[in-house]
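#struct-help
A.M.: can someone run this one for me? Single chain, 54 residues.
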Amino acid sequence: MSKKENWAGTAVLAGAAAVGSAALAAALLYTNRRKERAQKVADKTPLGDAPETD
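D.P.: on it. Structure tokens below:
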């Protein structure tokens, strides 16, 4: 195995790690934003003004 092949494998692993960490960061940002939006809607909805139903 030459050094060139060894570097190629290392580069592939580093690229895969970068893509994986970026995907994880994007997922965390997405869920955080959804939670904040849900909290805003919950804060705006008054609990005492429930519609009357039969």
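A.M.: thanks! Residues 1-41 form one domain.
D.P.: also worth noting: The helical segments are 3-44.
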